[in-house]
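Collaborator request log, item 7. Partner lab (contact: R.S.) asked for a structural prediction of Cytochrome c554/c'-like protein to inform their binding assays.
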Amino acid sequence: MSPTRALALFVVLLAPTASPARSPGHVGVAVCAECHPAETARWRGSHHDLAMTEASEQTVLGDFADARIEVHGVTSRFFRRDGGFYVDTEGPDGAIHTYRIDYTFGWWPLQQYLIAFPGGRLQPLGIAWDARAPEDGGQRWFHLYPDTPLTPEHPLHWTSRDQTWNHQCAECHSTGLRKGYDLAEDRYHTTWSEIDVTCEACHGAGATHVAEARAVAAGPGQWSATKGLRVDLGDRDGGHWVIDPEHGLPRRTVARTAQHELDTCARCHARRGLIHEDPTPGQPLGQTHRLALLEPGRYHPDGQILDEVFVHGSFIQSRMYRHGVTCSDCHDPHDLQPHAPGNAVCARCHTATRYDAPAHHHHPAGSSGAACVACHMPQRRYMVIDERADHSLRIPRPDLSRTLGTPNACNQCHQDRDPTWAEAALARWYGTRPERASHFGEVLHAGRHDPRAAEPRLLRLAADRDQPAIARASALDLLRGAPDPLRELTLRRLLDDPDPLVRAAALDALAGADAATLRALALPRLDDPVRAVRMIAARRVAPLAATPRDAAEARRLEQALDDYRATQLATAERPESHLNIGLLELDARRPEAAERAYRTALRLDPGFVPGYVNLADLQRALGRDAEAERTLRQGLAQRPEAATLHHALGLALIRQQRWPAAVEALGHAARLAPDNARHAYVLGLAQARAGEPETALATLRAAQRRHPEDRDLLVAIVDLARRHGEHQLALDYAAKLQRLGPP
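Returned to partner:
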């Protein structure tokens, strides 16, 4: 046996792993099944039941009969030995090692495999098994990132910190999970009550419920209001869905006011970040997580899914959500399947004779185009083969495809046609409808491209309570910088909005506000009932901690800063969390604490670019310029491809008036990030200062062609051309600047 292979086996055998440990109050699925056999039977074999299991003959679906796959120049071999399942594949050092499969992860349409690593980590292998039928292309090994060559240094490599199960996946694949992360040692001791998603993952710890049930069965006992459960997921208001005879649409006989079920599902079925470890289901999502907004790269500007954002952020955009529909109206909460097959699940509320008919969908009955989900819940593939439906339940808008470049269900099927054709077809079938006159996506699209010009429209969208709260919050998210008086008036109202997403985004939009504004608007929100809002309020008022008005305010601010740190330490294994703490400390004028936080981030991840940039900037502010340059060069030794580090180094060299070296560093940044207008702008100015005006003009003009609406580039070209006698050129670009209108 080679030394490398022996070391790999030693690591696999001795690495600590996650383990079962009953959480307080948890009784386990076997106890629940004693009284709830029907629900348990439906749950058995569901995706929740099979979310994670020990690797065994019954649970491993993949081919381990000496199967091989070659991806990115690495050949991996899957095989059996001594009753176990093993893989030979590339490890964190770039060499081939043998790893034992400890757990299966997921079931269909793909199954992943977890491998124990030192420090209590479990890492999901980047090669997965396609569990679909052979006729659907399944029963094969495939790589989750087939088009991205992954070296061990890449954050998507299966051994990286970004892929660690304990942080990325565990919370939603097991019940009663305790992450057990130790920051000082950078290791986990993760435990669970049950390895998969069982009854108590949704209903909460069941010990009190079981005790009440047994007392009732014995005779004298009585049920409490919630039957001993922390959350009541049932509808107790007597409401049900009926067809309104006036307009033929479904309505609930009683308006739904409780969101316990939706918040319970959202804890896992949402793109969100952990801010507080608390396994109690049913509480508002914002008490434990911060929901991702409609951000570029995650959602299209009209709110359609783009990156893997799961379900909740889409569903809360829908009219169905606004009218009180919840998850179990469509899905059985135990087997997770729709209550009826195909269009029948929609026909439970929407009259089939009206909607499941060619007169409505204009496709042959029974065809794929006649499916409700084809038009209203188009699917997108993630993890190569996993099709996920967009739950915003939207009406297709090919007109937005034409103006915004967003997808639409019509052209996703009819790829040989263009959006204008689809738009004309919808107009023939349904006429021109008032609700299609505008869409929040048009405002978000404008805000993504030029937030300054779009600010009035963004503020109107944010204030419009007829629009989805996630869209309103996303509009505010595009407004950064010190608020002017007009914006402040809107923010003042939105800080009292009923939806916590909007309140949190309004607080975020106060970044850069003066002390008086922060005291008047942000300080009162430290008492908000939702933790995600209090977290942002604390972040905003951090500058006040440097100069509190009195002892009472000092104590209140200190508690707020402690609470904010706690939200970040819920994910203490992430370098981003310590970067956020460092920024908080910097705002509170505590540079030593900020430096400690930045260094912790770099200890956890020596390749964390923002850690180097912010540490160097802090060192510069403290007059430690030589140290700042060393920090940036240390970062470049780790991440030579990081444009941000080259740019920061160039700025540091400019401050030292080392112009040739600065131009070289800034040139690296501009070449590595050609779409970054700011990099090109600073490079052009540096080239001009270094005595290269012709080169500078060429740089700026090339950048302006890529970014025709960038005012800074236009101003720089006009100024440089004028100063160097290029008067006609200056006039030409001044005209372009004038055509953009006022900023």
